[in-house]
Every structure is written in C-alpha cells, then in structure tokens.
Specification:
68% of the residues lie in helices and 0% in strands. It is mainly alpha-helical and 210 residues long. It folds into 2 domains: 48 residues, no CATH class; 141 residues, Up-down Bundle (Four Helix Bundle (Hemerythrin (Met), subunit A)), CATH 1.20.120. α4 runs antiparallel to α8.
Length: 210
C-alpha cells in the first residue's frame, strides 16, 4: 500500500499538481495505538496536532501515555547500543567483502550500515524512525533533525552524487540485478564517507544521552 501511495504522489508531483514533495509514512491503527500506549513522542504529536483527513467510526486512537524523562533516556540508550552496534558490524562486513573482490555484496552491506546509522540517530534523538529501507528518505529526515549529518555526504560533484545513488540502489540491485556495477574507487569513497557518518552519529547520540 505504501508503494502505491508513493507512486501516486510522485505522479502528481511530476504533473505539477503538487508543488511540495510529499513522503508518506504508513502505520496501521493497531500499531499507532500501541505506540501511543507506550508513550512514543512522534505518535503523541500526531494524535495531538495531526489533521484528520478521513476517520472510520468505531476506530478511536488510544489515550497517549507520555514517557517520563528517565524512561525516554533508557529507551534511547537501548536504541543507540543496538542500532549503532548493528551498523558497525555491517560496515565491517562490507570491508571484508570489498577486500575479497565481492563488490556487489560489499555495496549491499554498506547500504545496511548506512540505513542502520540513520535509524540509530533518529531513534536515539526522537524515539522514532520510519519503517523504511530508503536511505534517501532516512537521510532527509535525519538531516532535518541534526544538521551536522549533512557533511557526511558531499553533493557538490557528479562523482559523489553517483556514489550515493549507487548506495541507494544497492539494497535491491546489488543482490538481484545483473546490471548493477560498482567500481573499487566508488566503494572506497563510500566506505570513507560512511565512516564519517559513523563518527557524526556517535558524537550526536553521545551528546544527547549525556
């Protein structure tokens, strides 16, 4: 359902019926109510400030139960340890595959490292991250919250933009498409910049947890 909504919004944007890009986030009612009952700030803000476009009778939102500061910090700490550790393992795996000449598997593992670093920073700072593998979406959300993350990915030349595009496509194409190709130089550049992302994420999250 999410992909159908995204495709329709993209069509509307390309036809200029929508001027501002829209990125939908889809959660079913049971998930929303569970998150409200667990005090997740993102969902509490949606319930409090969101504008209802359509509401089916007999399906109310749960009563929000905000977390205490101590509970929020404990959850953020758990998120940081789990997602940062996972990301570091993916980065190590990517370097292993790259050293053994398996560039496509290396690219996939780099995508996973990048995705996990973005989930890590979003969850640590806000206790919420969209259920998405799209690192362009995750990057945009994370950079909106913490501007220091922008420096991890230069956008000022064709090579850097191409490398990030290859990283973005690697989640599917590096595993399944015979046409996906990535060079050693491109992999090396991506490893360097994901290490920069790693350092920024660690600094930002450590500051917040302190």
């Amino acid at each position: 359902m999410n992909s159908g909504i995204e495709n329709e919004l993209l069509t509307q944007q390309l036809s200029r019926r929508i001027e501002t890009p829209v990125v939908p986030i889809v959660h079913d009612l049971n998930d929303v109510n569970e998150q409200l009952s667990r005090g997740r700030p993102f969902f509490i803000d949606v319930a409090k400030d969101g504008i209802v476009l359509y509401e089916k009778p007999g399906h109310p939102l749960a009563q929000p139960k905000p977390l205490t500061a101590e509970e929020a910090k404990a959850e953020a700490q758990d998120y940081f340890q789990r997602w940062f550790g996972n990301a570091r393992k993916f980065l190590e795996g990517a370097q292993f595959f790259a050293a053994n000449g398996d560039r496509n598997h290396a690219a996939f593992m780099l995508h996973q490292a990048c995705e996990n670093y973005y989930h890590c920073v979003l969850l640590t700072l806000t206790l919420y991250s969209p259920k998405s593998h799209r690192i362009k979406v995750l990057r945009s959300r994370a950079e909106d919250i913490e501007g220091r993350l922008i420096s991890a990915w230069p956008r000022d030349n064709r090579f850097s933009r191409r490398c990030f595009e290859l990283l973005s496509r690697a989640y599917v194409e590096a595993r399944y498409s015979p046409n996906y190709k990535i060079s050693s130089d491109e992999l090396e550049w991506l490893v360097e910049h994901i290490k920069q992302l790693q350092a920024i994420v660690e600094a930002v999250c450590t500051e917040r947890l302190a």
